[in-house]
Amino acid sequence: MTDNKEAWQEPAENPESHKKLVAFLKEKGVDFKVTEHKAVLTSEEAAEVRGVSVASGAKAILLKDTGKKLALEGVPFYLAVQGADKKFASKTFKKLINSKGIRFATPQEVWETTGCLPGAVAPFGKIFGVPTWVDRSLSK
Amino acid sequence: MSYADYFAAEEPKFHVFSDEEIALGDIPKDDAAEAPKKNDREAKKQERLA
């Protein structure tokens, strides 16, 4: 992974990440439907293009462990998934993973870790090799 | 795809980390575990004083 953020330019898109996701869902026997829409960045935009309420959706947030020593050796990133209409409690999540510090991943880190553009990260850390934590409210 | 399908496929870890859920009283496990300890200390103190 490079730190040359100024030189990094956001790519157009990566069909490989979509292929990986579709293959994963098929492998798991999940019933799903593919729909296409314009690129969106926020939960509100996503809900609008899908014609659903914001509250009905979930958002996936890629986080970087910024502690000098990683909370989990070899695990610099985490995926937090919560209701799209809810605010992320970073202090609580930091405590949860026992990290000294966390921050939102940069667009470049999102791309390099998931192969997705910001706003298009699937809530499946398994396909990216990233631990996934889901806010319990989604299971209610 | 339903949330049930999603949970079955991803098998994530569940916790509480959204501000709204915490505000509703569904507090994180660590905090919940700490709360009774404080109450226990207070209860013991009251016993000693009684």
Overview of this structure, please?
The complex is a heterodimer of chains A (140) and B (50). Chain A is α+β, with helices and mostly antiparallel strands. Chain A has one domain (15-139): Alpha-Beta Complex (YbaK protein). Chain A has five helices and four strands; from the N terminus they run ααββαβααβ. Chain A has a four-stranded mixed beta sheet with strand order 3-1-2-4, with helices on one face. The longest helix of chain A is centred in the N-terminal third of the chain and has 13 residues, at 15-27. Chain A is globular, with a radius of gyration of 15 Å. With 50 residues, chain B is mainly alpha-helical. The longest helix of chain B has 21 residues, at 29-49. Chain B starts with a helix and ends with a helix. The model of chain B has no long low-confidence stretch (mean pLDDT 75). The chains are: A alpha+beta (140), B mainly alpha (50). At the A-B interface, β2, α3 and β4 of A face α1, β1 and α2 of B.
Q: Give the overall form of chain B.
A: elongated
What overall form of chain A do the CA principal axes indicate? Answer: globular
Oligomeric nature of the chains: heterodimer
CATH architecture of chain A: Alpha-Beta Complex
The CATH topology of chain A: YbaK protein
Domain count of chain B, please report it.
1
Low-confidence stretches of chain B: none
Number of helices of chain A: 5
- How many discrete domains of chain A? 1
Low-confidence stretches of chain A: none
**The CATH class of chain A:** Alpha Beta
Name the helicity range of chain B.
55-70%
Largest beta sheet of chain B, briefly?
none
Chains forming the largest contact: A-B, 33 and 23 residues
Reading the helices and strands of chain B in chain order gives HEHH
Number of DSSP-assigned strands of chain B: 1
Number of alpha- plus pi-helical segments of chain B: 3
N-to-C SSE series of chain A? Answer: HHEEHEHHE
